[in-house]
Amino acid sequence: MRERTWILISVGLILAYLSPLVILGEGAHLRIHDNLDSNLIWYKTLVENNVLFAPNDKEIPAIMNGLPREALSAELSMFALLFTLFDPFPAYAVNLFLMRFTAFFGMLLLLKKHVLPQTKAGSFISVGTALAFSLTAFWPFGGLSFAGVPLVLYAFLNIRKRKNHWTNWLILILVPFYSSFIVSFIFFLAIMGVFWLVDAIRYKKPNWTFFMGIVLMTALYLIKQYRLVYAELLGQGFTPHRVEFDRGYRDWDTVMNFFGNNLLHAHSHSYVYHYPFAFFTAVFALLFTAGIIAVRRLKRKRQPDPLTPGEKAIPALLLMIVVFSFWISIWNWEGMRVLKDAVDLINEFNFGRFHLLNVVAWYIVFALSLMMIQRRIKFGMVLVVLLLIGQVAGETSRHHEFKYRSIDYPSYEEFYAEDLFSDIQDYIGEDPSDYRVVSIGMHPAVAQYNGFYTLDFYVTMYPLEYKHQFENIIEGELAKNDTLENYYNTWGGRVYAFSDELGKNYLFTKNNQYTIENLDFGTEAFKEMGGEYVLSAVEIENAEDNNLELEKVFENESAAWKIRLYRAES
Question: Could you list the residue ranges that cross the membrane (predicted)?
């Protein structure tokens, strides 16, 4: 079959993969962590409050009694555009379509033009590997942070070869506005910088066009993140809670266990189902390569190098993957505290995230390994087909609909439960701006999505002063639980109404009921911050001891929650 046919089949499979978003709509089951509990709400709130382009110090009253605008996401991004053009769920769905198809065609171009030979087998492996890569469980709000790396690498390699077509520069210009600098591309561009330097030393002639590509992308990211540049690098704006970060006290045994797990299973923001198919395919190719080199040395004869450039690259790429996995492991080692305690930037920023790029490296290694199997083994093409089917099936098994439905997660509609929270607002009968709420047993994002003004929230940066103020509400519960106390004091990204009895669980749906027997809630501090109502997904047995009066219990068939509305009394 021709390459075009394989591409059309792959496009059809990607559309089938994405079809639950269209068929089920808001009935689809989606990732909650770092997704429905946070990023989606940030953009929805920015758009609905008309503060996308507001000044840094503009306060958003619906969040944390006035979260400064600079704390939330950049407006110069594809996400801001999508949430401006569409309602939240369609915006989310369109984002996933864009990510998947960019991942597919980006990886296909990279493999065809720069990695695999342009043979019939090479074309088939390129398409099959690109399909598997496009079905990877990418972090939805990463945009092209990982899904777009192959496309950007393709453009850089073209520029390196002096192919300065305008499309290569267009890729470098557009991708920064649909990806994250601090999550992935700062590390990718650092690698490109090393690549450029090695070339300059090796050929004794710097490729300044390639260098300008690196500078261009970096500059565009800084322009996109101008708020962060102004607030952090220039020392302007509020003092962020991140100055109290005190993470990374793992002992050596824990570090080694994390290293092994990261190597085999990657990270939730850059998850790749490379074990067992891609992993053992790569191990086989590595051993085969080592065997060819050993035999050649034993014969001690001068003969042409039997290895292709691609086969020679396999050990180097696998070494890079191992190094990156080890680096993130020791980044959280207790021995690194010496550097983190000495330099604020090292303490507040995770320089270990090189490992998030492993998802791309694994698929390049997989493609090279498949090519070796096809060339070196009798009936190798049959094995290649089986391995590609296994890899595609493995990635498909992690489909959000399969994964989250199987663990009894609520659907998008059930999670945000708009009708239920509309009933709560109607019962209260006041404008939401006139009172503040916190949630217990569920993510504050649910209340925030439905227009409540929340004192609690999940955000990556907010004023340190607010962290200390909110602590007065939860200090009694933190004192009971060392894990929660450490979680809040040394990180603090989740400003939640924690409970010792619930722990770090925020998904107590009506099918997962629980009763808090002894809550120590700082009601007076809550009232001082404007708090009036507690939206609890669980029953609070000693509510009266905390001056919380149960007003009413709300429940309906389409909502995941059974909400007890408590009112704080003086």
Answer: 6-24, 92-111, 131-157, 169-196, 208-226, 273-295, 316-333, 353-370, 377-394
In the block, residue with structure tokens 């382009």 = 53
CA distance 189 to 213: 10
On the question of pLDDT at 57 being above 80, the answer is yes
**Which amino acid is located at 220 in the chain?**
L
Nearest to 561 by CA among 534, 533, 538: 538
Do the bridges between strand 515-516 and strand 457-458 make them parallel or antiparallel, or are there none, so unpaired? unpaired
Q: Which two tokens stand for residue 484?
A: 């929660």
Q: What is the pLDDT of residues 408-425, one digit of tens each?
A: 889 999 999 999 999 999
d(CA 224, CA 222): 5
Give whole-number Cα distances, 460 to 240, 465, 484, in Å.
Answer: 9, 15, 18
Rounded distance between C-alpha atoms, residue 354 and residue 368, angstroms: 22
pLDDT at 352: 85
Residue 139: count of CB within 10 angstroms of its CB: 24
Per residue in 131-169, pLDDT (tens digit) is 999 999 999 999 999 999 999 999 999 999 988 899 999
Please, are residues 58 and 51 in contact by the beta-carbon 8 Å criterion?
yes
CA-based radius of gyration for the chain: 26
Query: Over 80: is that where the pLDDT of 239 sits?
Result: yes
Phi, psi for residue 487 in degrees, rounded to 5:
-60, -45
Task: Please state whether beta strands 531-536 and 436-440 pair in parallel, antiparallel, or not at all (unpaired).
Answer: parallel
% of the chain at pLDDT higher than 90: 76
The span from the CA of 55 to the CA of 226, in Å, is 11
**What pLDDT, on the 0 to 100 scale, is given for residue 272?**
75
Give the pLDDT mean for 286-293: 82
User: Mean pLDDT over all residues of the chain?
Assistant: 93
Instruction: Decide if 113 contacts 367 (C-beta within 8 A).
Output: no
Return phi, psi of residue 240, to 5°.
-80, 155
Residue 420 CB burial class (10 angstroms; 0-12, 13-18, ≥19): buried
User: Quick check: helix, strand or coil at residue 438?
Assistant: strand
Distance CA 519, CA 501 (A): 8
d(CA 31, CA 63): 23
- CA 186, CA 208: separation in Å to the nearest integer? 20
Q: Which two tokens stand for residue 7?
A: 């591409």
DSSP lists the bridge partners of residue 562 as 555
pTM higher than 0.85? yes
438, 444 contact by CB (below 8 A): yes
